[in-house]
Specification:
alpha+beta; three-stranded antiparallel beta sheet; 7 helices; 41% helix; structural constituent of ribosome; rRNA binding; Ribosomal_uS13-like_H2TH
């Protein structure tokens, strides 16, 4: 069974090892597990996001767009899973976690929802919509000196030239 393409650099290096050595590596479907000698790599996927193995599950869940710290704590209390490292989760706990996370609006659905709300504001022509269209701060911040993140890099405007006598 070949591995699906992955963004994890460690898994890519394992794939390169497999190609050089010629020995196939096996991966389990729910949580990809690769073995090479004594080293074992396991990547848990929840909500179509690979969670980091070395971090506690409370912080790993925050890698999913739409799940912050309070929501992660709520998910753990609802499922009854203790806050241990991601690599220590059993398959049952991962399944429980996936089912609980599916109840929330996350990743693509949440991004689409936010973009549709911004588009709606732009279509009705309200002030917030116009500010979004002009790529200016929306919530009343000053723009004389600041707002570089929203406005983009400052462009120097050539000043008036002094008249020569």
């Amino acid at each position: 069974m070949s591995l699906a393409p992955c963004s994890c650099s460690l898994l890519k290096s394992f794939e390169n090892l497999r190609l050089r050595s010629g020995t196939p590596l096996q991966a389990k479907a729910p949580a990809q597990t690769l073995k090479r000698g004594q080293l074992q790599v396991r990547a848990a996927r929840v909500g179509n996001v690979e969670l980091p193995n070395q971090k506690r599950i409370e912080y790993s869940l925050q890698y999913i767009f739409g799940i912050g710290h309070p929501t992660a704590i709520q998910i753990l209390s609802d499922t009854g899973i203790e806050n241990k490292r991601t690599r220590e989760l059993s398959e049952e706990e991962l399944t429980q976690l996936r089912e609980e996370v599916d109840k929330y609006s996350i990743e693509g659905d949440l991004r689409r929802f936010n973009n549709l709300n911004i588009k709606r504001l732009q279509d009705i022509g309200c002030r917030r919509g116009r500010r979004h269209t002009a790529r200016l701060p929306v919530r009343g911040q000053n723009t004389k000196n600041n707002a570089r993140t929203r406005k983009g890099k400052a462009v120097a405007i050539q000043g008036k030239k002094k008249a020569t006598k």
